[in-house]
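This week, work through this protein record:
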Amino acid sequence: MSNDPTDTPQLIKVGDGFHVRQAVDNMAWIDLGDCAIVVDALEQAELRQEVFDAIRATLGDRPIRYVLNTHTHYDHVALNQSFRKHFGAEIINQRTQRIAPDGRWFEGTRRRALMLPMPSCHTDEDCVVWLPDDKALFVGDIFGWGLIPLTRELDSQTARLLVDTHQRLIDFDAAVVIPGHGPLCTTAHLKRWVEYFLWLHEQTAQACSAGKSDSQITRQVRPPDDMKTWWRFLEWKHQDSLGKVLAAVRSGWTAPPALTPLSCATHVSPRRPCRGGTGRGGLAGR
């Protein structure tokens, strides 16, 4: 019998009127008060009726006004058109309408949500969705349970981007973090990933300097004990991340990224959110 928590989809109640369908691909529907939003839309269009039935069972007749895609890879958008046709929902992502750097707020009588661009860790379209009233943060495929989410080459510049972006996510101090794929997690998992990423670089760089072969390094740099229960980490994610770091070090990546704050010009505080928005409201993580 499999112990994979995503084998059977689970409906998780984050708060009143706030439900996450947790599976390999995650999505959520959230009652803002006078309307509801959906975050991400799976990869299987045939799940339309199952999802609509679950929404009706949990939200009643609350209209779905917006579908927010954290990015537009196929495994996040399959039900977009079903929501548009059935509910008249507006599809919001970085392709349908550009989100300003300081984000866009979706306001309701019950709660509010901020859609905020954090591009290039996974795709140039990456956005997160923050619900301050619930202290819940959707991170798309930026966090992937030990995986390095890049779809381009790892080097000193992209390593710095990864660490800086994770620091921004950590600053939200979310009680619940909803990744694009797999089990829900917490801010502690985001912190642990940064530590793991920097540790991978340190261990790999030292081994390369000592003249170890790739196969020797692969055997030497073992998965940390406290991460062995992370979703699919032992199955393939540790080896994948180690391989990416090893290739980057062999190509000349020598210095780990410094942990320094981002400038105020590019950082929206999760505690004192900017109201400058309109007021209207791959497979990396697997």
User: Anything to note?
Assistant: The longest helix spans residues 187-209.
